[in-house]
TrEMBL record:
Organism, scientific name: Christiangramia fulva
Protein name according to UniProt: UspA domain-containing protein
Residue span(s) of domain UspA: 2-136
Length: 265
């Protein structure tokens, strides 16, 4: 498995890296640490070179700490330094390297009380077609025993995504709660059966969420007590807008403590 860690060396980014390491501690994983240097346009070349060297030195220190932290011997680490903007840098890396999962912090510490997904995280989720795991500040890995998956039956579910969830041992023992955000129909019944085929070893619960506009902050607080992962399908990003958009989402004023996994085709 190949995992690209999008990191700015902040506490939030470091915590996201540690979460991913713990989540995948029994998997063979190649972690690549991506860090971006954004030089000031008018900075002297000597100053920029000094800053480049400092960042590269920090990257080597971080890699060494990650290697020391990894106890299973199944995790390998490398670095990717770039001066491109985040989305461009991620795309360029993925053009020449296969990536199974992107990992990043959900939102910077200074904005956690005003948004669930930060600007950069939301941009990556909407512009990069790769599975993405976004980890909130200070959230430590715990056994995945209860997963929430909001679902709009108006989109087609990709078989690859369901296989990823159904066949991955990380999710097999978890209770999967599917929030149906569209009215029941003959198509929804077929999709329920389709989902059930891929989760025959998991407990499945389907429930309708008919009136999202009246969904209260109190309900969101209760949700965070019940679940330890939210899964959103890339084609269902409308749900991401409704629930968690960094400007217009319903719960942007209440800090989130649930990791968010976005699955793209």
């Amino acid at each position: 498995m190949n995992v690209l860690l999008l990191s700015d060396f902040s506490e939030v980014a470091i915590n996201a890296t540690h979460y991913a390491m713990d989540l995948l501690q029994y998997e063979e994983v190649n972690f690549t640490l991506l860090n971006i240097y954004d030089p000031k346009p008018d900075a002297p070349e000597a100053e920029m070179e000094q800053e480049r060297n400092a960042i590269k030195s920090i990257m080597q220190e971080r890699l060494q700490k990650l290697r020391e932290r990894s106890s299973s011997g199944m995790q390998k680490f490398s670095e990717y330094y770039t001066e491109d903007p985040l989305v461009k840098a991620t795309r360029k890396y993925m053009e020449v390297n296969h990536v199974d999962l992107l990992v990043m912090g959900a939102v910077g510490k200074e904005f956690r009380h005003s948004t669930i997904l930060g600007k950069h995280t939301y941009e990556i989720i909407t512009k990069i077609k790769c599975n993405i795991l976004a980890i909130p500040e200070d959230v430590q890995f715990d056994l995945l025993d209860s997963i929430l998956m909001p679902l709009d039956y108006g989109i087609s579910l990709h078989n690859q995504n369901l296989q990823f969830l159904g066949n991955n041992r990380l999710f097999q023992k978890a209770k999967l709660n599917v929030w149906e955000m569209t009215p029941e129909s003959s198509e929804s019944k077929l999709i329920r059966a389709y989902i059930s085929q891929h989760f025959n070893e998991s407990e499945l619960i389907f429930s309708q969420l008919k009136d999202i506009e009246n969904f209260q902050k109190l309900t969101w607080i209760e949700v965070q007590k019940k679940f330890n992962l939210i899964i959103i399908h890339g084609k269902n990003l409308k749900i991401c807008d409704q629930l968690m958009h960094n400007e217009h989402g319903l719960f942007t004023s209440h800090p989130n403590r649930i990791p968010i996994l976005v699955l793209h085709d």
